[in-house]
């Protein structure tokens, strides 16, 4: 088993170490130890995307992820990936819980209207990413929480920055979307046909 001690490392470093173990070293069993739940979820998602069966554990302040299997995609992933690749993909990056500057109340109202109107993009809307204070839109009490839950149920992928959630101490309050890391965000931006930054 390849063991990786990624405690004290900020995301996406734990994921990058797991990626190197799988893709460069060909590891078929990997154990990654991290010091926060966001990193644990990010490593879990990465290993699952590579076809690993994943088990999670916690021991005091340490979180571990054990992946067993191999770097083959899980059955049924390829057709979906091919279908996804055929459609135009728009990624919308939200970096604040308000839109524009000048008046914060107006900015928050504009962001709520923007999120509610995003569905007009139709199936081309591929990823909705929340970083910095925009992660507050994905937590308990958010004025757009019901809308985001509906978008996710309808198949839109929502990525919520784990480092940002930790910074604002909001990880436990997140109600929608996948807790993610900068590697996932950069990869999604690279795969998108168009990126809209707010």
Task: Describe, in plain words, how this protein is organized in 3D.
- By secondary structure, this protein is an alpha/beta fold.
- The protein folds into two domains: 67 residues, TusA-like domain (Translation Initiation Factor IF3, 2-Layer Sandwich); 111 residues, Hypothetical Protein Ychn, Chain: A.
- The chain contains seven helices and nine strands; from the N terminus they run βαβαββαβαβαβαβαβ.
- The strands form two sheets. It has a five-stranded parallel sheet with strand order 8-7-6-5-9.
Termini distance?
43 Å
**Count of helical stretches:** 7
Reported CATH architecture of the largest domain: 3-Layer(aba) Sandwich
Strand content: 15-25%
Largest sheet report: 5 strands, parallel
Helical coverage, percent range:
25-40%
| Elements, N to C (H/E) | EHEHEEHEHEHEHEHE
Number of domains: 2
Going across the major beta sheet, what is the strand order?
8-7-6-5-9
Q: Got a strand count?
A: 9
Mean pLDDT score: 87
Structural class: alpha/beta
Mind telling me the CATH class of the largest domain? Alpha Beta
């Amino acid at each position: 088993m390849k063991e990786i001690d990624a405690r004290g490392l900020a995301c996406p470093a734990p994921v990058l170490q797991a990626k190197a173990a799988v893709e460069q070293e060909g590891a078929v069993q990997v154990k990654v130890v991290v010091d926060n739940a966001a990193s644990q979820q990010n490593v879990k998602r990465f290993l699952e995307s590579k076809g690993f069966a994943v088990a999670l554990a916690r021991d005091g302040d340490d979180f571990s992820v054990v992946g067993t299997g191999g770097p083959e995609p899980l059955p049924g992933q390829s057709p979906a990936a091919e279908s996804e690749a055929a459609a135009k993909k728009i990624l919308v990056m939200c970096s604040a819980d308000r839109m524009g500057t000048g008046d914060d109340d107006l900015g928050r109202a504009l962001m709520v209207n923007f999120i509610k109107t995003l569905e007009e993009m139709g199936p081309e809307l591929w990823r909705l990413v929340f970083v910095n204070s925009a992660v507050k839109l994905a937590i308990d009490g958010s004025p757009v929480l019901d809308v985001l839950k509906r978008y996710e149920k309808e198949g839109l992928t929502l990525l919520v920055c784990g480092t940002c959630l930790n910074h604002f101490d909001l990880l436990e309050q997140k109600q929608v979307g996948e807790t993610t890391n900068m590697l996932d965000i950069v990869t999604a931006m690279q795969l998108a046909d168009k990126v809209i930054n707010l």
